[in-house]
Amino acid sequence: VAEDDLADDGASNAGVQAVREYAKREDCEVFVVCAEIEQEIAELDDDEKSMFLEELGLKESGLEKLIKASYSLLGLISYLTGEPEVRAWTIKKGTKAPQAAGKIHSDFERGFIRAEIVSYDDLMACGTYNAAKEKGLVRLEGKDYVVQDGDIILFRFNV
Question: Which of 16, 66, 105, 128 has the fewest CB atoms lying closer than 10 Å?
């Protein structure tokens, strides 16, 4: 869409409304993207990108919207691990902890004992892992735990 149509998320654009009506009948997702703005965003560093999006009244870029919609359509979520480096792992929604551990290495799944978990939002609110642990936000989960989008997990295993 044109840049002017981003402010109201395409609500005043007849073409967008027609697509939304069709998508509703087909049980599909719709989001608006301005290719010109996306090109400008791609040329900015993270700080400039945040300021630019804020000036436009946007919370996220079209690329971020596309990624979220694609994950949703494909039934995917991400969880994070943190030692020795932070890494995101993509799994199917509904995956249990041992199978999620198996995405890292088959030995992790085979020797799974339990998972130490904190949500991303809780960790960011507390600032540190230890602060989250002191507030009781880090929990131990067993083999039946279904991993949630944004979980930060430390797997305990023995092979």
Answer: 128
Bridge partners (DSSP) of residue 92 are: 76
- With tokens 């049980």, the residue in question is 27
- Among 8, 61, 55, residue whose Cα is nearest residue 16: 8
pLDDT in tens, 102-156: 999 999 999 999 999 999 999 999 998 899 999 999 999 999 999 999 999 999 9
Q: What is the pLDDT of residues 58-96, one digit of tens each?
A: 889 999 999 998 999 899 999 999 877 889 999 999 999
Q: Which one-letter DSSP state was computed for residue 43?
A: T
Contacts 24+ apart (CB under 8 A), 139-144: 140/114, 140/115, 140/116, 141/97, 141/114, 141/115, 141/117, 142/97, 142/114, 142/115, 143/96, 143/97, 143/98, 143/112, 143/114, 144/96, 144/97
